[in-house]
Amino acid sequence: MKKVLLIILGILATIGMILIETVLKPDYLVKSILKVAVFGGTILLYCIFCKVKLTEALNLKKPEKAKSLFLFIGVAYVAVLVAFFVCKNFIDLSNIKENLLQKEGLTKSNCIFVFLYIILCNSFLEESFFRGFLFHGLRDNRVASYLVSSFLFAVYHIGIIDGWFDFWIMLVCILGLMLAGAFLSFVSEKYKSLFANYVVHGTANLAINTIGVYMIFFM
Predict the structure, then answer these.
(1) Tens digits of per-residue pLDDT, 14-34?
(2) Whole-model pTM?
(3) For the chain, what is the radius of gyration of the CA atoms?
């Protein structure tokens, strides 16, 4: 019963965030507040209904074998940069830049604040939901935990990158996001701690923001 409820809540929260991104289209601050409410509220609702401690639901404990985590941190940063430079000739960078400036409301004056939020806060929020709540919550069924958390992680990002790419590039992006989700799930499985995922995800977002700075200031 708990597993079924967890999956249903995960699907509903993901759909809710997609609708916020594609229908409501609020500015970045409002969207961030709504994301906290949707993801955080979903996790709290599950904890209250199923009488699960929040620390257990999110897998909040010290990472195991933390020294080797630096390898995954390096892989996350380099992989994002390599993917960008390999694919940049196949995508319309000017369209993405325009989308960021208009849809997300990014400007040269506020982008530093937004980028810091993405690295420090957004990484933790997404990892809490997709790897803490979903992957850790479904860990008794390894296949289901990987598939559900990775698929919803990829689908959730459709709303964020909506309008950036054409159909076929979007499909490639979804596949790439599922692989990224699986990679982060592997990190969760290896280190048995949300904090490990937070650091790796934050590093990947740092690489994405490096690309963002390049696009906003130098394109």
Answers:
(1) 999 999 988 888 888 899 999
(2) 0.91
(3) 17
